Design the sequence.
């Protein structure tokens, strides 16, 4: 974590996946995820198919499995829930290593683990091959409400600046003998958060003043938004991933 | 300069008074005229009202009394006037991170002229022209936070140059710059064919760039004279909390 | 907590996505009323603030365990419910897309719980408590503590509701158990959230009370802002 957080996921490269316009990658990733979520959990082979698909895209994007799996660990806290299901699930139970587990719950845990992991891998591939700036451009081209992309643009621009300020304030606090351990750091931490808010808010006001001084009247001019938008060929190329995933999902739905 | 005499001055501030909503009076009738093509330094201690005055120049603050004219056009609340005033007055704020808010240098430089309605090739030409003027042309596609502080300040200058302003107003242009960046910026500013008002308490920088200086203190203009003359008056400087750096002797360059 | 893919079934996730979009549209309209054309830069900076604060992990005990602020109640107190919800939502969208936090297919659920339910519950309580409690730092602190704590628990119960509607594994009679477990865990998280939110808001209120939305909006006599409000052309 830290100031680099914003950039660490992007892997500089000129692979074919990197070169695809962001909007097609976002659309492909979301559709792929939806197909995965829609797949019946008992269709184990389907998840194998998805995993192969992810592996193929990763290879094409020159993103190594070690990096991908290492980063995927971030989902661990989010799937803790999955591990509770075998204990709380209803119906038929089996004994595994002396524990009485619900079969339905085990299926449920598998369902969450498989779908959660595939979803995280897909997002990681998107983040590894697309800069944050391009992600915003892509969202914009996908007709995401402009106010949201604008807020996101400002957020990403100033995140590093604020984290840097927070770090300097923390160093200054520690230099004056504040011991950032245990619960009594809470007051210092919260005072720092308060100071950070003041700085963020006041910077927001100054940024706005500087914008008004350059003729801003509440509408962001659309500059060069059209340039570099995806061609039909690029849409088609990226569509292969969700198309294959959708086919797998459809077959799985029919078979189970 | 004789050819310019007939033209309205780039900046004409007359009797500007301003009181904040809480009643605190920040400006007590300020007069200041900057002829076209001149470079003038606005000096004064912290809290003198320099920034408040600057915010009047493009109509962000409205004076409680007096008028501000830019190239003959008087600042008013009227929409089209205000838009034109903001084109004519290019303010470079102190912290370039406040000014550069878009993901790339080129987009940020394009923001001002795009607000003026420029698009396409015309807009791109403006951006290239402004970036070339500050020697940042090769950085047009970089992210502002990947630039050095000095480079960011130069881009900030470019963002207002791209609007082809009548007058460039710089708030503490030399602050936080290392000596080389400071010199580079001075060279760039000296080469710009534009009227310049520089708000600073960096007296050597004022001496280097501006023939004329104005001292503002407690909301009043207390001195308006050639820079070298002002800087040689130790008593005047001391009265208004201005000091030359140790060992600096003002002399004509 | 962020819900990851596969916990809730597709149709329920889609319904909540539509719900979240509609609610956010409403937040944009009300946010514009609060901030006018300052909405984009101000909300952007506040979102950056929330994101930055979430990144500042603080160790709870000397070993290992660390926590971070969720910030929904804090945002509601400082910038109001509409802009606050909008900011938290943008943070969630970026986290899902850029960092893979929480499943993309579950984005609507996560926004509903953390940005909408959490902020709404917090602000309702704030509006109530600030009227009842004395206008002192203690009163503000207690308001902030309680509203932050409750907002975290309410957000967790949003998940329980969604699970009841479209959970992928039938828990039978254990749904109440799930609700209890979630409430218990989030009560603990909420205590930390409440303490930090309270201290933060009291700190800000001491320096710039005019910046605390809740104090401004819920008190008729508005003190003049110390910073000039810029008048744009309109």
Sequence:
């Amino acid at each position: 974590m830290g100031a680099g957080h914003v950039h660490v996921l992007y892997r500089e490269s000129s692979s074919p996946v990197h070169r695809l316009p962001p909007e097609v990658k976002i659309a492909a990733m979301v559709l792929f995820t939806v197909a995965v979520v829609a797949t019946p959990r008992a269709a184990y082979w389907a998840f194998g198919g998805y995993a192969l698909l992810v592996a193929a895209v990763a290879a094409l994007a020159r993103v190594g499995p070690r990096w991908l799996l290492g980063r995927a660990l971030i989902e661990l806290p989010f799937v803790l829930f999955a591990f509770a299901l075998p204990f709380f699930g209803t119906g038929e139970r089996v004994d595994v290593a002396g524990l009485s587990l619900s079969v339905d719950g085990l299926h449920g845990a598998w369902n969450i683990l498989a779908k959660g992991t595939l979803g995280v891998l897909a997002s990681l591939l998107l983040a590894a091959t697309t800069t944050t700036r391009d992600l915003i451009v892509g969202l914009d081209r996908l007709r995401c409400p402009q106010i949201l992309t604008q807020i996101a643009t400002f957020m990403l621009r100033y995140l590093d600046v604020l984290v840097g300020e927070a770090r300097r304030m923390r160093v200054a606090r520690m230099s004056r003998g504040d011991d950032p351990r245990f619960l009594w750091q809470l007051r210092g931490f919260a005072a720092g958060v308060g100071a950070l808010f003041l700085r963020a808010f006041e910077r927001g006001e100054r940024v706005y003043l500087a914008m008004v001084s350059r003729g801003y009247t509440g509408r962001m001019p659309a500059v060069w938004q059209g340039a570099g938008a995806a061609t039909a060929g690029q849409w088609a190329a990226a569509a292969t991933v969700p198309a294959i995933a959708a086919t797998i999902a459809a077959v799985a739905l029919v078979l189970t | 300069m004789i050819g310019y005499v007939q033209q309205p001055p780039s900046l004409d501030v007359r009797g500007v008074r301003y009181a904040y909503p809480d009643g605190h009076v920040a400006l007590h009738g300020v007069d200041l005229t900057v002829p076209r093509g001149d470079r003038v330094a606005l000096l004064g201690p912290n809290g003198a009202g320099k920034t408040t005055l600057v915010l009047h120049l493009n109509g962000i603050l409205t004076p409680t009394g007096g008028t501000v004219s830019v190239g003959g056009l008087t600042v008013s609340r009227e929409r089209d006037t205000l838009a034109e005033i903001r084109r004519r007055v290019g303010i470079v704020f102190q912290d370039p991170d406040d000014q550069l808010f878009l993901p790339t240098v080129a987009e940020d430089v394009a923001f001002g002229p795009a607000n003026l309605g420029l698009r396409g090739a015309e807009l791109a030409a403006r951006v290239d022209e402004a970036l070339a003027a500050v020697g940042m042309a090769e950085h047009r596609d970089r992210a502002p936070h990947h630039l050095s502080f000095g480079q960011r300040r130069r881009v900030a200058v470019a963002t207002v140059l791209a609007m082809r302003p009548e007058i460039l107003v710089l708030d503490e242009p030399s602050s936080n710059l290392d000596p080389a960046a400071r010199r580079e910026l001075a060279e760039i500013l000296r080469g710009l064919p534009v009227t310049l008002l520089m708000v600073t308490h960096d007296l050597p920088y004022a001496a280097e760039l501006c023939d004329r200086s104005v001292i503002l203190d407690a909301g009043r203009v207390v001195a308006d004279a050639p820079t070298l003359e002002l800087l040689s008056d130790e008593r005047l400087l001391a009265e208004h909390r201005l000091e030359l750096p140790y060992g600096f002797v003002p002399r004509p360059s | 907590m962020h819900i990851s893919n596969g916990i809730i079934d597709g149709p329920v996730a889609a319904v909540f996505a539509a719900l979240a979009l509609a609610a956010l549209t409403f937040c944009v309209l009300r946010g514009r009323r609060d901030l006018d054309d300052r909405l984009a830069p101000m909300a952007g900076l506040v979102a950056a603030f929330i994101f930055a604060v979430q990144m500042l992990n603080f160790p709870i005990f000397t070993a290992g365990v660390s926590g971070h602020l969720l910030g929904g109640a804090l945002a509601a107190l400082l910038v109001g419910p509409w802009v606050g919800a909008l900011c938290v939502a943008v943070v969630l969208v970026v986290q899902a897309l850029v960092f893979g936090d929480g499943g993309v297919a579950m984005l609507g659920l996560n926004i509903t719980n953390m940005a909408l339910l959490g902020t709404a519950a917090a602000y309702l309580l704030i509006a109530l408590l600030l009227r009842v409690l004395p206008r002192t730092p203690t009163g503000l602190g207690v308001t902030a503590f309680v509203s932050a704590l409750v907002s975290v628990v309410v957000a967790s119960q949003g998940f329980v509701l969604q699970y009841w509607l479209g959970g992928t594994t039938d828990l039978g009679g254990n749904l109440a158990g799930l609700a209890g477990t979630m409430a218990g865990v989030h009560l603990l998280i909420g205590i930390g959230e409440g303490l930090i939110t309270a201290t933060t808001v009291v700190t800000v209120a001491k320096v710039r009370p005019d910046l605390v939305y809740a104090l401004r909006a819920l008190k008729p006599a508005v003190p003049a802002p110390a910073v000039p409000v810029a008048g744009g052309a309109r």
User: Anything to note?
Assistant: The interface with chain C takes residues 20-22, 55, 59-62, 77, 79, 82-83, 101 of chain B (CB under 8 Å). Residues 7-100+165-239 of chain B form a domain with the Rossmann fold fold (CATH 3.40.50.300).
